[in-house]
Every structure is written in structure tokens, then in C-alpha cells.
Write a structure and sequence with these properties.
Length: 294
């Protein structure tokens, strides 16, 4: 089982360092002027993952203009969320194998593994699988370029240098690494907490252990309604009830009103509880999109 794979020390060091830089900010002076930049970075990085990598690129829940795709994709690269080909390949496989022994990040393998360690212990063979599962993503020129780590880090380094130039070292820590550390852990909680029996509730009788969790949804920009998402993977909305606060859904709705998003897969009007709509065997056709990339 891959939870016993060798630790990739380089990735472990980078992920720990990125988070420690966020924690280190607590020992520097905080200025109110940092707040708007912190919020902007949190939303850019966060929506880069939730709106672009997940709801658009993996599940093709809507369409948007090319320049907007590049804008959100760049946000995900600023946050070093993982190159799009790997991210999409891993996530599509998670939907197909959720909470089985082959799931790439199920809490069946332990909480630390589901939360972060799966990123560090991935067998090299996972990469080959991502190339197959995300073949459509490799046709997008910048996603292809970002398979090269040296090119992938450029957006992060440019934003880091800009923030350092404006605010100095403490401003860099507060404005970039605090939002990244928070976004990482809230995003990872979708994989760990939202697949644990102890936390949250289920609205759909899916074949996995996925749960809806308001608090994860709050920080992860709506991704915490994970049971809803496993039941209806292509739906652009994860929060379905009025009180299921789903920031990413509201962003997509706003983009649609501005004619910057179209072909949006919204929930069906009658929200009757459904039975296991995304079984393992049935998932493949809805996860592997027929939509042409850029
Ligand atoms: Zn899941
Ligand atoms: Zn998904």
C-alpha cells in the first residue's frame, strides 16, 4: 500500500517550509495595510484551486474565456497548489476509487496521510497515471509548460518578489505565506475531514464516506460540501441548501451574470435526495470530459 512508500524529502521540505514561513509571520510586526493584500492572495490562490483546478478543469462544470482561465490558473500556481496535470489526474482517480484501498488520499490510510502525507508518499507510478487521466489538460499550453517545476514556480516567485518590494520581509510573510498556509490546510481538510465518519453530515447515499461540513466549506470557499460533490461531480455548485455557504458557487454565478461563464452545470430545480449517482463504474464518462480545452 502506498502509505508505506518512501517519503519524498524534497516535497516534504518544501511543503513544511511554506507553512513554517506562514507561522513565522507571527513573530513579525503586523500592519493593517497587509489585510487587503492577504485577502486578495487568499481568494486568488483559493479560487485557483476550487474554481479553476477543481470545478472547471477536472469536472468541466462550466466554461469561461481563455484569459480568465489563465488568470485563475496563475492563482493556483502562485499558491503552489500542484501542477494542473498532476492535480487533475490525482483528483479524477480519487473520484473513481473514493474510500477504497486504492484511493489516493482516503482517511482509511490514517488522518495524516489523507491530509498531507499522500502528497509526499506518492509512488512514481502515479505520475504516469495522471498523464493518462489528464490527457486533455496536457493540451493546454501553460498546463503543459507547468509540468516543468522550474517554470511552474515562476508565478509564485514573481508575486513573492513584488510583495517583498512593496512591504518588505514581514509583509511578504503576512501577505503571501499566511494565506498559503491557511489555504493549504483548509483545502487538505476536504480530503481528510470531509471523508471521516465522525465529522459532518450526508445528504446523498454515495458509495464512499464523503461528508458535508459547514466549517470546512467556509474556509475552503465552498468545497466542504463534499458529499454533495461526490453525488454530483460535474455540478458547479457544491453547497445546495440556502445555508450551505459556497463562495465559489457565488463567484461562478456572478461570472455567468457578467457573461464571463456559460454552459454552467447548475443543480436541478427539484432537490430530491438521490441515490448513489456516482458509483465507481458510472463515474468515468462524467469525469473524463468531452469538452475541448483552450
Ligand atoms: Zn472526496
Ligand atoms: Zn471533485
Amino acid at each position: 500500500m502506498f502509505k508505506n512508500e518512501k517519503i519524498n524529502l524534497a516535497i516534504f521540505t518544501i511543503l513544511m517550509l511554506l507553512q513554517l514561513l506562514g507561522v513565522a509571520a507571527l513573530w513579525t510586526r503586523f500592519e493593517l495595510i497587509y489585510l487587503p493584500a492577504m485577502l486578495a492572495i487568499y481568494l486568488w490562490v483559493g479560487l485557483g484551486t476550487t474554481l479553476y483546478l477543481h470545478r472547471y478543469l477536472t469536472h468541466r462544470g462550466f466554461e469561461m474565456p481563455g484569459w480568465l482561465k489563465l488568470f485563475f490558473a496563475t492563482g493556483s500556481a502562485v499558491g503552489l497548489a500542484g501542477d494542473p496535470v498532476t492535480w487533475v489526474g490525482d483528483h479524477r482517480y480519487h473520484h473513481l476509487k473514493s474510500d477504497t484501498d486504492e484511493d489516493i488520499h482516503s482517511p482509511r490510510h490514517g488522518f495524516p496521510y489523507a491530509h498531507m502525507m499522500w502528497l509526499i508518499r506518492k509512488p512514481p507510478s502515479f505520475r504516469a497515471r495522471s498523464l493518462r487521466y489528464a490527457a486533455d489538460v496536457r493540451k493546454i499550453w501553460y498546463c503543459k509548460l507547468w509540468e516543468n517545476s522550474a517554470l511552474y514556480v515562476i508565478p509564485h516567485l514573481v508575486v513573492a518578489a513584488t510583495l517583498f518590494g512593496f512591504f518588505g520581509f514581514s509583509g511578504l510573510l503576512w501577505c503571501l505565506y499566511v494565506p498559503i498556509a491557511i489555504a493549504y490546510n483548509w483545502t487538505w481538510a476536504v480530503n481528510s475531514i470531509c471523508h471521516m465518519k465522525q465529522f459532518g453530515y450526508r445528504s446523498f447515499d454515495t458509495s464512499d464516506e464523503s461528508k458535508n461540513n459547514f466549517w470546512v466549506g467556509l474556509g475552503a470557499l465552498g468545497e466542504g460540501y463534499h458529499n454533495n460533490h461526490h453525488a454530483k461531480p460535474r455540478c458547479a455548485a457544491h453547497g445546495l441548501k440556502w445555508w450551505e455557504f459556497d463562495f465559489t458557487r457565488y463567484c461562478i454565478w456572478t461570472l455567468e451574470k457578467l457573461h464571463l461563464a456559460w454552459s454552467v452545470v447548475w443543480p436541478e430545480p427539484v432537490a430530491a435526495p438521490a441515490k448513489d449517482e456516482a458509483g465507481v463504474d458510472e463515474a468515468a464518462p462524467i469525469l473524463i470530459p468531452s469538452v475541448d480545452p483552450l
